[in-house]
Amino acid sequence: MAMEMRRESRLKVWMGCRLHAAGAETEGCLADLSPHGLHLVGQPPAAGELVEVRVRGRMLVGQVEWTSPQRFGVFLRDPLDPEALLRGDAPAEALPGPLPHGPLPLLGPRPGWAGAVGGLARSLERGALVVAALLAAVVLAAPLGAALRAFTR
After folding, report:
1. 114, burial (CB in 10 Å: exposed 0-12, middle 13-18, buried 19+)
2. Every domain of the chain and the residues it spans
3. What is the enclosing helix (H) or strand (E) of 51?
4. Residues in the chain with pLDDT < 70?
């Protein structure tokens, strides 16, 4: 298995976003981000495609670097401060202006959808913990069962 080398650390997140590429607009989720890139979950545009990502009322612009089924990576045109973006106070000068086709229409807040995504992420996390606990119980139960059988003979 090849080891993946990253240029910079990533901040893991899970938040809804709007994607605009090749004249189409879709919804997606931001999985992680760094000062120069985004890892997105959704219908991937073609590699090399210019994409706009609207997240937390900000517009981020970049180019699709890689794709896989339902996931893709974007190299950002302008660097950003991931922590500031998450806090909602990213400086305006760090965010790019509109593309030649003009800005996307303003999108209102989507608390219901964002809440559902957050709830799904928490459910998946809890499910993973339950599976890990069950696996640990099975691994520990086998030697204990053998010891009990030997003791009762």
Report:
1. middle
2. 11-108, 110-153
3. strand 50-55
4. 1-7, 89-130, 132
Q: What is the pTM of this model?
A: 0.55
Amino acid at 32: D
CB-count burial class (<10 Å; 0-12, 13-18, 19+) for 72: buried
As given in the structure block, the two tokens for residue 118 are 């957050």
CATH number of the structural domain 11-108: 2.40.10.220
pLDDT 10s digits, 22-53: 888 999 999 999 999 999 999 999 999 999 99
For residue 145, give the 3-state DSSP assignment: helix
Q: Coil, strand or helix: which one is 15?
A: strand
Structure tokens at 145: 């069962």
Which amino acid would we find at residue 91?
P
Buried b (16+ CB within 10 A) or exposed e, 77-112: eeebebeebbeeebeeebbeeeeeeeeeeeeeeeee
Q: Residue 125 is encoded by which pair of tokens?
A: 């996390």
DSSP classification of residue 8: S
CB atoms near residue 74 (< 10 Å): 28
How crowded is residue 12: how many other Cβ atoms within 10 Å of its Cβ? Answer: 8
